Backbone:
C-alpha cells in the first residue's frame, strides 16, 4: 500500500519537455508555414481533447504526447509523422473519429492514426497470454502498420511508456518489458533504430533483472573511471595524427550499453574482465576514403586485436549500418573498440531507416535520396504498393512472405557493377533477378556466380558476384522455381505469371471447344468444312451481331453456351441439308471406302486408330477374323511381326478424298501462348482440330502437344508440318503411333 501512495517522479524522472522545445527541434528542418501551422493546430487540438485526462502517474495526458512527438522530431521525421505522433491516442481515448482527423489533417495523417488505433486495440500483451509466438506478434505489428511511419511512432510511444514504467504495478512492468524485448526491440534493430533499441534494452533489463542491472552499472562506472586517464592519452595521440594528416574529424567516447554487457556476460558467458569493448571511441570524418585513411593511421599507432577488424562500409549490416570497427590495445593494456564512419553513416547508425526517411524540404539531393531509399528498402516499396491491391487471399500470403523478408534478410551479394544487394538467407539467382526487376526475373535463362555458370537453384552466399543472363524470347518463370525461391517478391511475381498463363491456357481450351462444338453443329446439318469456313471467315456482320471482336471470342462464348450453337446457325440461316452419307462422316463405310484390296470383293476395310493412315501413306491390311480388314501404315509396329494375315492394300484414286483424322506430336520449348499460337496457325490454315492436348515434359522445360487434326492426304500433312515448324519454339513435328 505504502508503495502505491508514493508518487512516482514526474515523467519517470526524465527531463520533461514543453511543446516549445518540440517546436525548436522541428523548426530547424521544417520551414513551410502551412506545415508549421498544422503541427501547432494538432498540438492545440490534443490539449483540448485530452483535457482532464491523466496518466497513471497523475500527470496531464498530453505530457506523453509531447514526449512522443519530441522523440519523433529528434529523428527528423516529416510534418505528417509529427502530427500523427501528437494524435496517436486521440481516437482511442476521446470522442474524435478517424473521419474527423481526415477532415482536419488530411488523408495521410488519418491513415497513420487509423493504423495506430487498430494496433492499440489489438492489445498485444493480452495475446501474449494466449498461444502466440513472439515472432507472430512482430509479424502482426508489421503487417498492420502498412507504413514505416506507423512503426516509428509505435516505437517512440513504447519508448516513452518504458521511461515512465515506474508508475505501473510490478506485474505490468514485467509484462510490458518482456513484450518490448520480444516484439519491439527486434523491430527497432531490424530498422536500424539503434538509439531507441539500446535505450529500450537497458530499460527492459532494469525491470526484468533489477539486481544484475545494478551490478553491471556499478562495474561499468568503476571500469570507466580507471580507463579515463588512459583514454585521454589515446584521444590526444589520435587527434594529433589526424590533424597532421589533414583529416577533418569529430571524436567521442562512450560506455557500451548495460544490456550489451549483460548479453555478453549472461548469454555468451564472458566474465566482465574479458569484455574488451566496454569503451568505444567513435571517430566521425567526412568521406569514405578518410575513414580508411584514419583506420590506417590508428593501426600504425596501436596494435589492432586480430580478428576484431570489421569493414561494414564495404559490407553493410542488414539494417544498413555502415562503419569500420577495430579493437586496439593501449600501452597500459586496455582495450578500446574504435568505430570510424562518415557523418551520414553515423546518422544511419543512430536512427537507421529514419535517417533515410529524414524529412528534407526541397533538398538538393532529394532525387538521389529517393533512389537510395528505393534501392535499399525495395521491400518497403512493395509493401506500400501492395496496399492498392485488394486481392485479400494473396494479400495475406504476400504479407507472410514480406515479413519473412524483413526479419530474415541477411545475405549480401554484388551486381557485376559492384552494387550491394540485400537478399534473404537461402536466396538463389532467381531471387536476385526478381530483386533487380520483375522483367529481369521473368526473362531469366541462366546465371553466372563469380564468373561460373550455375544452376538457377544455387544458394547464394554473402560476397558472391551474380550476373543474370536474360533472353527476350525466354519462356518465362517456371512453376518449379517456386520450390527454391525464398524472397516474397520472387514468389509473388512467379505465381502471378503462372496464374496469367493458366488463364490463357484455359481460354485457349475453351476457344477450341467452342470452335469444335460449332463445327459439329454445322456437320449435323450436313455441311462440310469448306462450306462452314465460308459462313464464318470474314463475316463481320456475324461478329457484330454477337457483339464480339473476333471469331476466337465467339468460340469462347459458344463454349459457355453464350451464344448457343443453334443461335449462331439460325442467325446464319443454316438449314439442315437432306444429304446422302456425307464425305466427312466419321465412319468410312466400305462402299465409299478410299481403300481397296485386290480380289477381296466388298469386304469391310477400316482405318487403324493406332497409326491413323491417310491417303498417300504406304499401307497394308491386317485380316481380323470376322471383322474384315484393318488398314495400317506399313511401318506401324503393331503389325511389324505379322506376315500371314497381311494383305496388300491400295488407295483408290477414283473418288474425291474427304478428311481423315491423323495424330501428330508437336515438340517445343515451353513458352507463353505456345498452345494458342499452334491453334491459331492451324485454324488460319483451315485445318480442323478434333482434339489437342499439351503437357510439360523434362522438368517443365519442354512441352509435348498431341493433336488429332483432319487432313485430306499426306502431302497436305507435310505442308501443315512445315507451317507448324515455323512457329517459334517448335522444333519437331512427328506422327504418333499408339
Ligand atoms: Mn501512447
Residues:
Amino acid at each position: 500500500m505504502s508503495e502505491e501512495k508514493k508518487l512516482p517522479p514526474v515523467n519517470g524522472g526524465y527531463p520533461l519537455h514543453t511543446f516549445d522545445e518540440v517546436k525548436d527541434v522541428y523548426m530547424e528542418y521544417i520551414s513551410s508555414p502551412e506545415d508549421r501551422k498544422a503541427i501547432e493546430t494538432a498540438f492545440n487540438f490534443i490539449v483540448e481533447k485530452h483535457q482532464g485526462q491523466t496518466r497513471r502517474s497523475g500527470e496531464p495526458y498530453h505530457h506523453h504526447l509531447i514526449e512522443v512527438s519530441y522523440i519523433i522530431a529528434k529523428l527528423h521525421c516529416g510534418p505528417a509523422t509529427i502530427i500523427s505522433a501528437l494524435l496517436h491516442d486521440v481516437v482511442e481515448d476521446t470522442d474524435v473519429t478517424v473521419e474527423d482527423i481526415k477532415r482536419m489533417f488530411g488523408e495521410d495523417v488519418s491513415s497513420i492514426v487509423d493504423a495506430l488505433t487498430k494496433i492499440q486495440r489489438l492489445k498485444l500483451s493480452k495475446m501474449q497470454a494466449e498461444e502466440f509466438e513472439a515472432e507472430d506478434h512482430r509479424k502482426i505489428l508489421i503487417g498492420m502498420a502498412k507504413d514505416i511511419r506507423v512503426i516509428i511512432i509505435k516505437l517512440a510511444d513504447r519508448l516513452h511508456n518504458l521511461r515512465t514504467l515506474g508508475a505501473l504495478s510490478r506485474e505490468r512492468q514485467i509484462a510490458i518489458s518482456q513484450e518490448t524485448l520480444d516484439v519491439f526491440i527486434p523491430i527497432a534493430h531490424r530498422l536500424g533504430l539503434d538509439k531507441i533499441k539500446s535505450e529500450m534494452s537497458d530499460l527492459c533489463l532494469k525491470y526484468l533483472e533489477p539486481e544484475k542491472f545494478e551490478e553491471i552499472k556499478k562495474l561499468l562506472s568503476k571500469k570507466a573511471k580507471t580507463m579515463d586517464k588512459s583514454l585521454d592519452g589515446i584521444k590526444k595521440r589520435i587527434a594529433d595524427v589526424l590533424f597532421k594528416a589533414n583529416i577533418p574529424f569529430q571524436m567521442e567516447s562512450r560506455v557500451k550499453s548495460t544490456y550489451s554487457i549483460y548479453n555478453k556476460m549472461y548469454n555468451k558467458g564472458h566474465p566482465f574482465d574479458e569484455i574488451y569493448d566496454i569503451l568505444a571511441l567513435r571517430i566521425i570524418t567526412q568521406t569514405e576514403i578518410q575513414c580508411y585513411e584514419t583506420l590506417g593511421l590508428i593501426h600504425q599507432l596501436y596494435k589492432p586485436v586480430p580478428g576484431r577488424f570489421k569493414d561494414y562500409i564495404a559490407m553493410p549490416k542488414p539494417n544498413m549500418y555502415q562503419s569500420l570497427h577495430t579493437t586496439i590495445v593501449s600501452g597500459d593494456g586496455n582495450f578500446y573498440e574504435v568505430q570510424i564512419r562518415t557523418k551520414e553513416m553515423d546518422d544511419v547508425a543512430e536512427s537507421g531507416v529514419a535517417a533515410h526517411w529524414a524529412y528534407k524540404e526541397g533538398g538538393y539531393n532529394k532525387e538521389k535520396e529517393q533512389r537510395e531509399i528505393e534501392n535499399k528498402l525495395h521491400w518497403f516499396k512493395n509493401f506500400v504498393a501492395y496496399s492498392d491491391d485488394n486481392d485479400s487471399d494473396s494479400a495475406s500470403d504476400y504479407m507472410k512472405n514480406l515479413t519473412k523478408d524483413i526479419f530474415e534478410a541477411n545475405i549480401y551479394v554484388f551486381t557485376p557493377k559492384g552494387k550491394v544487394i540485400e537478399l534473404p538467407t537461402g536466396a538463389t539467382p532467381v531471387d536476385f533477378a526478381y530483386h533487380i526487376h520483375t522483367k529481369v526475373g521473368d526473362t531469366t535463362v541462366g546465371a553466372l556466380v563469380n564468373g561460373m555458370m550455375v544452376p538457377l537453384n544455387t544458394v547464394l552466399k554473402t560476397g558472391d558476384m551474380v550476373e543474370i543472363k536474360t533472353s527476350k524470347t525466354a519462356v518465362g518463370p517456371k512453376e518449379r522455381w517456386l520450390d527454391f525461391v525464398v524472397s516474397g517478391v520472387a514468389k509473388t511475381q512467379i505465381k502471378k505469371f503462372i496464374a496469367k498463363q493458366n488463364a490463357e491456357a484455359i481460354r485457349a481450351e475453351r476457344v477450341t471447344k467452342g470452335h469444335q462444338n460449332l463445327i459439329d453443329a454445322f456437320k449435323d446439318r450436313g455441311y462440310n468444312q469448306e462450306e462452314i469456313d465460308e459462313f464464318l471467315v470474314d463475316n463481320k456482320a456475324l461478329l457484330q451481331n454477337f457483339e464480339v471482336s473476333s471469331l476466337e471470342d465467339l468460340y469462347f462464348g459458344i463454349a459457355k453456351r453464350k451464344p448457343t450453337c443453334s443461335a449462331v446457325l439460325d442467325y446464319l440461316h443454316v438449314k439442315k441439308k437432306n444429304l446422302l452419307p456425307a464425305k466427312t462422316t466419321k465412319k468410312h463405310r466400305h462402299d465409299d471406302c478410299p481403300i481397296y484390296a485386290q480380289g477381296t470383293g466388298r469386304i469391310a476395310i477400316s482405318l487403324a486408330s493406332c497409326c491413323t493412315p491417310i491417303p498417300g501413306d504406304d499401307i497394308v491390311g491386317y485380316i481380323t477374323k470376322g471383322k474384315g480388314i484393318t488398314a495400317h501404315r506399313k511401318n506401324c509396329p503393331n503389325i511389324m511381326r505379322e506376315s500371314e494375315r497381311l494383305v496388300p492394300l491400295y488407295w483408290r484414286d477414283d473418288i474425291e478424298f474427304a478428311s481423315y483424322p491423323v495424330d501428330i506430336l508437336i515438340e517445343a520449348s515451353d513458352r507463353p501462348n505456345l498452345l494458342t499460337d499452334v491453334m491459331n496457325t492451324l485454324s488460319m490454315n483451315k485445318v480442323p482440330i478434333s482434339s489437342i492436348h499439351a503437357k510439360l515434359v523434362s522438368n517443365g522445360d519442354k512441352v509435348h502437344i498431341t493433336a488429332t487434326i483432319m487432313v485430306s492426304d499426306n502431302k497436305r500433312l507435310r505442308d501443315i508440318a512445315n507451317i507448324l515448324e515455323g512457329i517459334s519454339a517448335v522444333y519437331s513435328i512427328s506422327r504418333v503411333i499408339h
User: Anything to note?
Assistant: Confidence is low (pLDDT under 50) at residues 124-132, 362-403, 405-409, 579-591. The two ends are 92 Å apart (CA to CA).
